Amino acid sequence: MLPESWRGVLGDEPAKPYFTELAEFVAKERANGPVYPPEGEVFAALEATPYDRVKVLILGQDPYHGEGQGHGLCFSVRPGVKTPPSLRNIYKELRDELGHPVPDNGYLMPWAEQGVLLLNAVLTVRSGEANSHKGKGWEKFTDAVIRAVSSRPDPAVFVLWGNYARKKLPLIDTERHAVVEGAHPSPLSAKKFFGSRPFTRIDAAIAAQGHAPVDWRIPNLG
């Protein structure tokens, strides 16, 4: 069930009682109607970014709840799907901050393949109902993911946008890892997000840790 590179550090999580209850809950939800992302993409973020390759962890809240949108990476949507507002704001900040052109798509797999773990705190959602799977157990699992990265000898950069994400700060060893905090890029808090220069701070932390830089440009898909 878990991608191979994460089994050594998370392998006992699926055996815990909370995870059994969570799996039963999600199965019932899927039996009653659409749940996103599809079953095979629930752990897509962990699949795309192996444990030993994580340079940056960006924490989202829960998946997009519209049909065809979410595919298991936070803030990302499938090719051909309209770029959601929060991601549009991220792109605007990248343009203003680093000069990168705004792409014609919201598919963030190029980031994930460079070691940017795009992790949602909750990994499934009922169609049309944001936060509908909140408090069912996913948070315990993703807290374990955050702790696993924090316990790794190789340092990483944790990106906590918004109050929800910032509550995860106690899970992170801030003496060994860098943390970039700031406003969430959603339209509700975009005024505080714009101009906060998060990517400049992330890039500086990556360089200080001795890792290769991340190319934040997303190619156009036409």
Plain-language structure description:
InterPro entries: UDG_fam1 (IPR002043), Ura-DNA_Glyclase_AS (IPR018085), Uracil-DNA_glycosylase-like (IPR005122), Uracil-DNA_glycosylase-like_sf (IPR036895). The protein has 222 residues and is α/β, with parallel strands linked by helices. Helix content is 36%, strand content 11%. The chain is globular. 37% of the residues are buried. The mean pLDDT is 97.
Which labels suit this protein?
single chain, 222 residues, alpha/beta, 4-stranded parallel beta sheet, two-stranded antiparallel ribbon, 9 helices
List the helices and strands and how they pair.
Blueprint (H helix, E strand, L loop, with lengths): L3 H7 L6 H16 L2 E2 L7 H5 L7 E5 L24 H14 L10 H4 L3 E5 L4 E2 L11 H14 L5 E5 H5 L11 E5 L7 H4 L4 H11 L14
Parallel strand pairs: 2-3, 2-5, 5-6
Antiparallel strand pairs: 1-4
Catalytic activity: Hydrolyzes single-stranded DNA or mismatched double-stranded DNA and polynucleotides, releasing free uracil
Family: Belongs to the uracil-DNA glycosylase (UDG) superfamily. UNG family.
Keywords: Cytoplasm, DNA damage, DNA repair, Glycosidase, Hydrolase
What is the global morphology? globular
Radius of gyration: 17 Å
Order of strands in the sheet with the most strands?
3-2-5-6
The largest sheet is: 4 strands, parallel
What is the helix tally? 9
Number of strands: 6
Question: What order do the helices and strands follow?
Answer: HHEHEHHEEHEHEHH
State the helicity in percent bands. 25-40%
Low-confidence runs = none
Share of β-strand residues: 5-15%
Report the average pLDDT across residues. Answer: 97
Structural class computed from helices and strand pairing: alpha/beta
Alpha-carbon distance between the two ends: 34 Å
InterPro entries: UDG_fam1, Ura-DNA_Glyclase_AS, Uracil-DNA_glycosylase-like, Uracil-DNA_glycosylase-like_sf
EC number: 3.2.2.27
Keywords: Cytoplasm, DNA damage, DNA repair, Glycosidase, Hydrolase
Domain Uracil-DNA glycosylase-like: 47-206
